[in-house]
Request: fold
Amino acid sequence: MSHITTLNTSPYPLLHELIEALEAYEQSFGQAPASMASFVEWLTQQYPNQPTSPQAEAWLNIEISSGVGLLNRYAKHYSKKMLQDTPLASTDDLLFLIALATQGAMNKSALIQMHLLEITTGTEVIKRLLRNKLVTEQASTQDRRAKEVAITPEGLQLLGQLQPDIQRIGAIIAGNLNTAEKQQIVALVGKLKRFHEQIHEEHKKAAINTIFEHYLQS
Reply:
């Protein structure tokens, strides 16, 4: 879409441009914006890569972090509904099973670290899975002092039973995004994941100021 033109004859060119933007929105969607947030979201798409003030940049950062956190809460809410009549106590139980099903037997510590859990929390997840005979535990083939866990046939069977609901929840979370928007989000999320993986690997115990200065001001 071409940028909205501004009439130089108006004493308030920015106001006039906003009015034209509202008219363009109504022409595109056949109605006025449902909220200021939806209008701002649409307007941002019309002016990509535009320089922003420090205040606007800070607002964008907060919106991203709070939005990601809220989406995670929604995902957990939907997942709890799916797990109600299963031996799985949390979404972490499910994620551990999925990891073992897709990647094979894993060192306990590696499995826990993959999901960014504290050792005590991750160990409790594994204990629950062991009690329900969804995984087995044995000495590591690479380090006899370490333990490996592997998914059992019962664990695979449970994942198979849950697969339709897992796909439905994925569709619900993706919501009303079209295919192009989903592909864009996957790419952006992947970029953010790689950024935070590096921090987690190299500066996991560093202070916030250290992380900020090293990764965002260097």
About this structure: Residues 54-83 form the longest helix (30 residues). The beta strands are 106-107, 135-139, 147-151. Confidence is low (pLDDT under 50) at residues 1-8. DSSP finds nine helices and three strands in the chain.
